[in-house]
Design goal:
Number of domains: 2
Oligomer: single chain
Largest sheet: 9 strands, antiparallel
Number of helices: 5
Length: 199
């Protein structure tokens, strides 16, 4: 076969293979888009169930199914809807799940506004010397009971409240603004206001 013909055959083969590759890539993109649209529709339906379903048992069952199915996107959808829910049982379930998802809880300390001037002065001095964080390191959790543990740490979630004690502190915090904790802790004998993000 003349060299020019061989070269032409080679070029045509490359173009044909490229065309097949582009077609396959387009098929893959279309499949991905189709799956994405289907998942988006599913998410919207599930959000509607969590937010609008009149039967509380159905809302709670849907929440538990989303949390337990292993899909991180569905997990986040359930948490977001649950934490913002006006249904206190659903919100409590979401709050407990959010805390059980954590390995550490970084508490930001401030002077407690309603404590005495002397206590506020002690709190200010502590923060200036040691920093404004107290970290709870969680190594063991029981989602069924809502309890958690760490080295010297014992804690429990009840409703939308969290209580804990550790080697130097004890405190009670509650859910605020759907994604935060706010409350009071005592370090030694010093009172602080404490807050933390949970998502």
């Amino acid at each position: 076969m003349p060299a020019k013909k061989m070269y032409l055959v080679f070029v045509i083969s490359i173009v044909a293979l490229s065309a097949i590759g582009v077609a396959n890539a387009q098929d893959s993109i279309d499949e991905i888009l189709e799956k994405a649209r289907a998942k988006a529709q599913t998410i919207e339906k599930l959000k509607k169930v969590l937010n609008e379903e009149p039967d509380q048992n159905v809302r709670l069952a849907a929440f538990n199914l989303l949390i337990e199915n292993g899909d991180p996107v569905m997990h986040e959808v359930a948490l977001e809807a649950g934490l913002a829910s006006a249904d206190k049982l659903l919100q409590s379930a979401a709050f407990k799940t959010a805390i059980m998802d954590l390995d550490r809880l970084h508490l930001i300390l401030k002077e407690y506004p309603s404590s005495s001037a002397k206590m506020q002065k002690l709190a200010k001095a502590y923060i200036e010397k040691n920093g404004n964080q107290h970290v709870l390191v969680i190594s063991k959790k029981d989602p069924k009971t809502g309890t958690f543990e760490g080295r010297y740490l014992q804690g429990e979630v009840i409703g939308t409240h969290l209580t804990f004690t550790d080697y130097s502190a004890k405190g009670t915090l509650f859910l605020k603004d759907d994604d935060s904790l706010q409350g009071e802790i005592t370090l030694g004998d010093i009172e602080f206001s404490a807050s933390s993000k949970i998502r």
